[in-house]
Amino acid sequence: MEPAVVVRQRLDELSESIVFQGDARVALPLLPDNSVQICCTSPPYWSLRDYQTPGQIGLEPTIDQFLNRLVEVFAQVKRILRPDGVLWLSIGDAYTSGDRGYRAPDKKNPVRAMSYRPDTPDGLKPKDLIGLPWRLAFALQRDGWYLRSDIIWHKTNCMPESVKDRPTKAHEYVFLLSKSERYYYDHRSMREANGRNKRTVWSIPTQPFKGAHFATFPPALIEPLIRATSRPGDFVLDPFLGSGTTALVAAQMDRKYVGVEVNRDYVNLSIQRLRNVFEDTRLALAE
Q: What CA–CA distance (Å, rounded) separates 113 from 219?
């Protein structure tokens, strides 16, 4: 792979699709105001995975620190969005660690192992469900976002859990948030087969991608989001690009994309996936 172009100053405009290697908190300030139509993303979940990246979001000692960092990231997203743009945000929940400083591997899900886990947060008890999705949604609402909808993504092939005192979790939330009171939304594309308005529970299986980390968006989840809230030629942003599925789906739907990913291995993976289909994908290094 050729060396990345280094970007240190804010771009005057966006003209072509691009993937940034770097922290979202460094890369997003380089993007111009009002330049992207939608952001479709899933940030790292708190205390769930160690991506072996210094300063990574998701391993903060406290929930408040985690939420504050995400609010800062999405404040930049709001600046970058057009006035009629929206944010689609997928976020999963977590349980307190019970003051265990590690998490042993699960025989059905070995990647869950972690060498470090934060203490049980103040005000919560061991084994408490934290409620992270709604904590983040309300924090963004307080920061000026319009909280417009909560969608239940029902995972029909959910990850098994070795638990015997609660049901196995089989869903995540996808929030629709907007920058302004009125925003672009093609309601006709959100019709179900019988013609009625699409409901807020979507049954979509996860779709793993070989070589990717565990948290990959299934294209079937992303496609209706992009179709309803952007037009051909618009820019779609994912500040936590991972394996590149959001960018790939956007390009397949005749949209342009801006991806940001801090982990070099995932950047290489997403660039490879994108260039297998779209040879002109640019790589930039955010500094």
A: 27
pTM here is 0.90
**Domain enclosing residue 137, as ranges:** 5-286
- Residue 171, CA distances (Å) to 90, 94, 219 in order: 11, 12, 16
- What is the token pair recorded at 222? 């992303």
What is the tens place of the pLDDT at every residue in 159-207?
888 889 999 999 999 999 999 999 999 999 999 999 999 999 999 998 8
Q: In the 3-class helix/strand/coil scheme, how is 138-199 assigned residue by residue?
A: HHHHHCCCEEEEEEEEECCCCCCCCCCCCCCCCEEEEEEEECCCCCCCCHHHHECCCCCECC
Name residues whose C-beta falls within 8 Å of residue 85's C-beta, 6 or more positions apart in sequence.
36, 37, 38, 39, 178, 179, 183, 184, 229
Count of residues making up the chain: 287
* Domain total of the chain: 1
